[in-house]
C-alpha cells in the first residue's frame, strides 16, 4: 500500500511488506507548560460554552410565556396592546425549527467545504447573537413581528452552531475519550437550558420594576450569547496555538473539497444511526412538549407549576449522567448496545405514564418524579452513545456534513412529530385516550429506536468492520488500522481530480478495466486502475485479530 503525503518523500519498506512513506517529524512550536494530555481538555472547556447562550435563549418563550402575555397585553411606551396567545408563543419555536430541517445540513457542509470549524463556529455564533439582539429589540419596543424575525435569524445559526461544536469536539478527541467529551458538552448545554428555566422567570417578574422586568430578562439572555461569542474566540485561539497537538491531522486538507454528492458515500449504518437518533429524540423531546398537559389532566392532575418541575428533572439528571455514561462508553465501548437498552428504558418510562393515564380512580399511581428520573438516565445514555460514534464511520473531511445531516433529520422529526400528535389528539374525543394516545406513539417510537439499533448491530459488522459497536479494546486496535471507509472517499476524491486533469486518458482505459465494487458496495469503473480498494490478506487477518481483541500490530 502506498500512502501519499503532502511532502515528497522516498518510500520505505516495512516488515509487513507494504510500502509506506516515512512520517514527517512535526516541529513543536507550542508552549510546553501544558502537557499534550491536558491541552484537549483546556480546548473542551471553551468548546462547552459555544452553545451555552444558544440553549439558554431557546426556551425563553416557554419559560416566561405568562409574563410575555402580560407584557404585550399592556399598552405602554406608546404602543397599543397586543393579544399574545399560545399560537404566538408556539410560532417563536416553529420559525426556529422548520428552517433547520435544511439549514443544519448546509451548515455542516459550509464548515467542511468553505469556512472550516473555527470560522464556521464564529459565523453561526454571530447569527445566534444578532438574532437574539433583534428578538430583544422586538420585546423592548413591543413589535411582535420583529420578535418572529429575530427568532428566525437566531435559528439560522442555532443548530449549525451545534454541528460546529460537535465537529470541534471530534477534532480534538479520539475514540478513547470521544463519548466522554460529547457527554460533557451535552451536560453544559443542559445546564444552560435548566438554569434558564430558573433565572429567566425570576428576572421577568422581580427585576427592577414590573414594567421593565421582561426586557431585562431577555437582555440577560443576550448577554449569555456574548459569553458564547467570547468562548468561540478562545476556542479558535487555543485550536490555532495547539494545532500540532491534534493526534490525527487531516491529510492534504487544503486539496480536499467535499461535495454534496459525497453524502452518498455515507455507509448504510450511518443512515440507520441518523434515523435512530431522530426517532429516539421524538420519544423524549416531543414528550416534554405534551407531558405537562398530560400530568395536569390525568392521574393525580398536578398543577402547572408542579408539572413543569417534573419536566425539568431529566435535564437536571443529564447534567451528571451524560458525562458519566460518556466515560463508561469510552472505557467499555459497545455503544449500540447502550442505545438499544436506553431505548428499552424509554419504553418502560412511557409505559409508566400510560398506566397513570388510564388507571381507574383510586388506583395506585407511579410517582412522575421517579419516572422522570428514570427517563433522564435513559436519555443521557442514549445521547452519550448516539452522537460521538458517527465520527467512527464518516470520513474526517465530511464529518461536519455528517453531523449536519444527523441534526437536520433530528429537526425534521422534532418539527413534524408534534403536528402528528396534535392531529391524532384532535380526532379523539374520549378524555382518557385523548391523553393516552400520544404516550402510545412515544412507546412505538422508543420500540422502533430499539429495533433499528438491533438491526444496526449486524449491519455494523457487515459494512463498517464493527466500528460502531466495538469494545473499548477493539476500538483502540481498530483506530490504529487503516480505515477502509476513508479509502472510499479518498479514492473518489483522487479519481475526480484525475478526471479533471486527464479526462482523455481515462476514456482510453475505460474498456480495459471492468466495473469493480469498493468495500462499501459502490461501483467505480476505474477503481481497479487507480487504487485497489479490496482488502488484501494482511488486512483481513488484522481485522479478524482485532475482533478477537488481539492487537494485530504486535502479533507475529
Task: Summarize the topology.
Layout: E1 11-13, E2 19-21, H1 39-47, H2 52-58, H3 60-63, H4 65-73, H5 86-97, H6 100-140, H7 144-172, H8 178-206, H9 210-241, H10 268-297, H11 304-332, H12 335-358, H13 368-386, H14 399-426, H15 431-463, H16 472-479, H17 484-501, H18 503-509, E3 516-517, E4 523-524, H19 527-530, H20 537-547
Q: What's a concise summary of this model?
A:
The protein has helices at residues 39-47, 52-58, 60-63, 65-73, 86-97, 100-140, 144-172, 178-206, 210-241, 268-297, 304-332, 335-358, 368-386, 399-426, 431-463, 472-479, 484-501, 503-509, 527-530, 537-547; strands at 11-13, 19-21, 516-517, 523-524. It has 556 residues and is an all-alpha fold. A two-stranded antiparallel sheet has the order 1-2. Strands 3-4 form a two-stranded antiparallel ribbon.
Structural description of this entry:
The protein is 69% helix and 2% strand. With 556 residues, it is mainly α. The longest helix is centred in the first third of the chain and has 41 residues, at 100-140. The chain has 20 helices and four strands. The protein has a two-stranded antiparallel ribbon with strand order 1-2. Helix 8 (178-206) crosses helix 13 (368-386). The model is unreliable at 1-26, 249-255 and 491-556 (pLDDT under 50).
Amino acid at each position: 500500500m502506498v500512502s501519499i503525503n503532502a511532502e515528497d518523500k522516498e518510500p520505505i519498506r516495512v516488515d509487513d511488506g507494504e510500502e509506506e512513506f516515512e512520517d514527517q517529524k512535526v516541529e513543536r512550536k507550542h508552549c510546553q507548560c501544558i502537557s499534550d494530555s491536558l491541552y484537549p481538555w483546556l480546548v473542551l472547556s471553551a468548546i462547552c460554552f459555544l452553545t451555552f447562550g444558544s440553549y439558554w435563549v431557546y426556551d425563553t418563550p416557554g419559560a416566561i410565556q405568562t409574563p410575555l402575555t402580560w407584557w404585550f397585553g399592556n399598552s405602554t411606551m406608546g404602543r397599543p396592546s397586543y393579544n399574545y396567545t399560545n399560537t404566538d408563543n408556539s410560532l417563536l419555536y416553529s420559525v426556529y425549527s422548520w428552517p433547520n430541517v435544511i439549514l443544519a445540513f448546509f451548515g455542516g457542509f459550509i464548515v467542511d467545504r468553505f469556512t472550516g470549524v473555527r470560522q464556521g463556529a464564529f459565523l453561526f455564533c454571530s447569527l445566534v447573537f444578532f438574532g437574539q439582539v433583534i428578538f430583544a429589540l422586538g420585546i423592548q419596543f413591543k413589535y411582535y413581528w420583529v420578535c418572529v424575525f429575530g427568532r428566525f435569524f437566531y435559528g439560522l445559526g442555532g443548530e449549525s452552531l451545534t454541528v460546529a461544536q460537535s465537529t470541534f469536539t471530534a477534532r480534538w478527541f479520539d475514540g478513547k475519550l470521544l463519548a466522554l467529551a460529547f457527554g460533557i458538552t451535552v451536560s453544559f448545554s443542559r445546564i444552560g437550558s435548566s438554569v434558564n428555566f430558573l433565572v429567566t422567570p425570576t428576572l421577568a417578574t422581580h427585576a427592577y420594576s414590573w414594567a421593565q422586568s421582561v426586557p431585562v430578562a431577555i437582555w440577560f439572555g443576550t448577554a449569555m450569547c456574548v459569553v458564547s461569542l467570547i468562548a468561540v474566540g478562545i476556542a479558535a485561539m487555543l485550536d490555532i496555538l495547539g494545532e500540532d497537538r491534534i493526534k490525527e491531522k487531516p491529510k492534504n486538507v487544503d486539496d480536499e473539497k467535499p461535495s454534496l454528492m459525497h453524502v452518498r458515500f455515507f455507509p448504510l449504518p450511518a443512515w440507520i444511526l441518523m434515523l435512530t437518533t431522530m426517532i429516539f429524540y421524538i420519544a423524549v423531546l416531543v414528550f416534554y412538549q405534551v407531558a405537562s398537559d398530560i400530568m395536569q389532566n390525568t392521574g393525580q392532575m398536578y398543577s402547572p407549576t408542579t408539572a413543569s418541575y417534573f419536566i425539568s428533572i431529566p435535564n437536571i439528571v443529564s447534567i451528571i449522567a451524560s458525562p458519566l455514561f460518556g466515560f463508561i462508553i469510552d472505557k467499555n465501548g459497545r455503544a449500540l448496545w447502550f442505545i438499544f437498552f436506553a431505548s428499552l428504558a424509554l419504553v418502560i418510562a412511557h409505559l409508566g405514564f400510560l398506566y397513570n393515564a388510564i388507571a381507574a380512580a383510586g388506583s395506585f399511581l407511579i410517582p412522575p418524579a421517579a419516572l422522570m428520573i428514570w427517563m433522564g438516565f435513559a436519555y443521557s445514555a442514549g445521547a452519550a452513545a448516539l452522537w460521538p460514534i458517527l465520527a467512527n464511520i464518516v470520513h474526517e473531511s465530511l464529518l461536519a456534513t455528517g453531523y449536519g445531516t444527523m441534526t437536520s433529520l433530528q429537526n425534521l422529526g422534532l418539527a413534524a412529530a408534534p403536528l402528528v400528535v396534535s392531529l391524532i389528539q384532535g380526532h379523539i374525543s374520549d378524555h382518557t385516550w385523548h391523553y393516552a394516545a400520544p404516550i402510545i406513539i412515544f412507546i412505538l417510537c422508543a420500540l422502533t429506536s430499539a429495533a433499528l439499533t438491533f438491526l444496526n448491530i449486524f449491519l455494523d459488522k457487515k459494512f463498517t468492520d464493527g466500528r460502531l459497536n466495538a469494545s473499548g479494546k477493539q476500538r483502540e486496535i481498530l483506530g490504529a488500522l487503516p480505515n477502509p471507509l476513508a479509502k472510499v472517499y479518498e479514492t473518489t476524491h483522487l479519481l475526480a481530480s484525475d478526471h479533471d486533469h486527464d479526462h482523455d486518458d481515462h476514456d482510453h482505459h475505460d474498456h480495459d478495466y471492468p466495473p469493480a465494487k469498493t468495500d462499501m458496495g459502490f461501483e467505480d469503473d476505474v477503481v481497479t486502475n487507480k487504487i485497489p480498494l479490496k482488502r488484501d490478506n494482511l488486512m483481513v487477518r488484522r481485522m479478524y485479530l482485532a475482533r478477537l481483541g488481539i492487537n494485530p500490530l504486535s502479533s507475529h
